[in-house]
């Protein structure tokens, strides 16, 4: 392998000898200014620890400020504002009561007491909520008790006597109480004092929240400033102690990446960077060795590819010979044996006739085996005309071809509506022929053969199944049956070459699908295979399953 060598003269990159001497005789970044003997790592450690200490203090203050802000905000939203709202609702409920009592007293009609009745219920609800909100605040509780005391005084003096009176008597009771204005004015005054106190407390809480937020913002600003300062210091330290040596190391590495594989990596800068440069140099040396190995492997691969091409050419030649030169002698053997039997049959005994039958049968089986092997070897090589294929039409043609064995066995063959796919029509016909003929051939002796071909869309593929009620395939043989020349029964019981399912797998995989025997199916065998779906119009497949075509 030719390895490019870096130019040594006339614009060549700076060599290690041309660089200024530094630590250990190699160019390095200048040490950071500071106390003698302090390394960059020590400066960074001290700086980081100091920064973390400051950030810890500021973080604690910030956390307290956040917690305080959340607490005040929750108190404002959950207590102060709701308490003021409930105080207003309490006032409205008492005003509604006073309105109902006054209306009843003036008219004597009971329907005017509806505001009073609703107001009493609203008062109870508002008082319950207020007690829950201000239960631990003595001043607010005292304001509420004052309102309730004056409201009770109004109830005892005015409201309840008027409500207890009937008809016009209610007006006289109200008039006797002076119209109830004085007692209810006292209620109004206590309500106004309560609302004023609650408003002042809410304003104070809002001021506390604003102060806490300002403190929080100040702390976070200080944290941001410290972070920026530390970032600037770290950036400068990294630039002086790390970036410059790394740039020199990167320049050497780029030269190697450009093809100067013999260019050594110079070790410069601090000790850790010199160790890194040493690792890169070791990697460069391993890369050179791997490139040499890859070149040898590529040469060997090219030789093997050429050998494979020669082997394929020989295989093509063998296929030609097998299809012509081998089958012709077999046909002659069978023909002359049959001629011999017809011409001299009267002079031959029974054993001679049996021997001639063996010879003819062997020649015929050899021809079938050769034809099956040729068909198997040609999958993916000879037939490769991919086009849109109507699988239903292909299956119909296959059933016509198999009409004789189907009629002899009395098989009933049905199928779902089948889609259109992209593939090789000849190979897909061979697929149907092998699967259907196997389903008919391996039938149970005690029942009429029944074969069903189903199809369903499963995402980007069509899933097909050929199901029969024959002798079935044991779970331990579900993979073995797809191997070449594998038979589960004797040739006398079920004739065949053991190539059919192997050819089916090769055809399906050539079309980008999968094929397998369903091991869970009982009462026969089910072979399931998939083919990629196409964008063709498959509207026929929306017809309900089971409307297939019976065998003729």
From TrEMBL:
Signal peptide: none annotated. One of its GO terms (cellular component) is plasma membrane. Its main location: membrane. The chain crosses the membrane at residues 43-66, 219-238. Residues 321-535 form the Histidine kinase domain. It is found in: Cell membrane. SUPFAM superfamilies: ATPase domain of HSP90 chaperone/DNA topoisomerase II/histidine kinase, Homodimeric domain of signal transducing histidine kinase. It catalyses: ATP + protein L-histidine = ADP + protein N-phospho-L-histidine. Residues 240-292 form the HAMP domain. The keyword Nucleotide-binding does not apply. Residues 1-12 have a biased composition (Polar residues). Gene3D superfamilies: 1.10.287.130, 6.10.340.10, Histidine kinase-like ATPase, C-terminal domain. It comes from the Bacteria. Its EC number is 2.7.13.3. Keywords: Kinase, Membrane, Phosphoprotein, Transferase, Transmembrane, Transmembrane helix, Two-component regulatory system. GO terms for molecular function: phosphorelay sensor kinase activity. It is an enzyme of class 2 (transferase). Residues 1-37 are annotated as: Disordered. This is histidine kinase. It comes from Streptomyces mobaraensis (strain ATCC 29032 / DSM 40847 / JCM 4168 / NBRC 13819 / NCIMB 11159 / IPCR 16-22).
